[in-house]
Amino acid sequence: MQVGQLLNGGRAIVVGGGGMGNGRAIGRGIAAAGARVALVDIDPARVAEAVVDVEAQGGAALGLVGDVRDQAVVERIVAEAVEWLGGLDTLVTVVGGYSLFAKWAPLAEVTDDQWNLIMDLNLTYVVRFAREAIRVFLDQGSGGSIVSIGSISGNVASPYGAAYGAAKAALTNLAKSVSVEYGDKGIRMNVLSCGVIATEAQQANYPDGGGLAERIPAGRPGRPEEIANAVVFLASPYASYVSGQNLTADGSLTSRFPLPLPDVRSNVAG
Ligand SMILES: NC(=O)c1ccc[n+]([C@@H]2O[C@H](COP(=O)([O-])OP(=O)(O)OC[C@H]3O[C@@H](n4cnc5c(N)ncnc54)[C@H](O)[C@@H]3O)[C@@H](O)[C@H]2O)c1
Predict the structure, then answer these.
(1) CB distance 59 to ligand 1 below 6 Å
(2) Among the atoms of ligand 1, which is closest to the Cα of residue 95?
(3) d(Cα 75, Cα 52) in Å, to the nearest integer?
(4) 148-206 tens-digit pLDDT
C-alpha cells in the first residue's frame, strides 16, 4: 500500500535513514509521499544503499555520512542537507536503541559512560538536530515538523535498560517544549513510540520468536512500513493541529490490562 502524496514537494532529513529496519523504511516512505529526502547515517555503505532504494522507487535522495554524537558534524550535515533540499520542512530522528550500543544491566551496575552513551544516542542528538532544524524553520518563516522515533520502553519501565526508557520518555517532554515555545511559528514536534517492530535488531533480541504473536493483541509484530506510514502522517499537513504528542504504534501491546483476569469469555455473547 502506498501512502498518498501527503508530503508533496516537501523537503526532509531522516537521521538514521540508512538503517536496516525503521530508518530505511521511513526514508522510503517519506520519499513515496512526495518529499525529497536527505538520508543521514554513520554507515556509508548503508546510506548509499538507502539512496539507491529511494531512487529505484522514483524518488530523490541525498546520502550524508556522519556521527550524530558530534555537534560540529550535525551542523555540517544540516547545512549540506538544507542546501541540497533548498530548505527544510521535516526532520525525522530515527537513530536509537539499546542493545546495539550497550549491554542490558540492572541500574546499580550501569556506569556513567554507558548511561551517557545511551542518552546521547536516543535523546541528546535529537536536541542537536532539533536546534538546527528550528533555526532553519524560523529563518524560512514557514514552520516545520519534527518527528522523533520513540519506544514503548519510554511509556512503561524498560527493565535492565533504564537509560533507554528514560531517554525515550524524555523525547515526549522535549516535543511538548518545542510545541509550546514555537507553536506560534508553525513548528510542531511529535514522538512516534514503536512497539515490537520486525527489524533485524528486534529479531536479534528475540531469536526464538519470544511468543510475540500470542502476546501482541494485533497478533504479530509491526512492520517498518507501518511505522513509516505513521511518521508520514505526523509530518504531513493532515497533522497540522497535532503537536507535543506521543503517538504509540504497538498493535495494542501496552493497552492490555496487565494482570491476569478470570476467564469471562464464556459470559460474552457471540
Ligand atoms: N525495532 C524495534 O522493535 C523498535 C522498537 C521500539 C523502538 N525502536 C526504535 O526505532 C529506531 C530505529 O531502530 P531500528 O532497530 O529499526 O534501527 P535501524 O535499522 O533503523 O537503524 C538505525 C541506524 O542508526 C545508525 N546509527 C547508529 N549510531 C549512529 C551514529 N552515532 N550516528 C549516525 N547514525 C547512527 C545505524 O547505522 C543504523 O543504520 C530506534 O530509535 C529504536 O529505539 C525500534
Answers:
(1) no
(2) 24
(3) 25
(4) 999 999 999 989 999 999 999 999 999 999 999 999 999 999 999 999 999 988 887 77
Q: What is the CATH number of domain 11-251?
A: 3.40.50.720
Q: Where are the domains of the chain?
A: 11-251
23 CA closest ligand 1 atom index: 20
Q: What is the pLDDT of residues 20-35, one digit of tens each?
A: 999 999 999 999 999 9
Whether residue 31 contacts residue 5, with contact meaning beta carbons closer than 8 Å, is answered with no
Please give the grid coordinates belonging to residue 237: 499537513
pTM: 0.96
Distance of CA 143 to CAs 107, 236, 248, Å? 40, 12, 24
Instruction: Kindly state if the Cβ of 21 falls inside 6 Å of ligand 1.
Output: yes
Cell readout for 181 is: 515555545
Ligand 1 centre to CA of 264 (Å) is 41
Rounded to the nearest angstrom, the distance between the alpha carbon of 95 and the centre of ligand 1 is 4
Among all residues, which ones are annotated catalytic?
A: 164
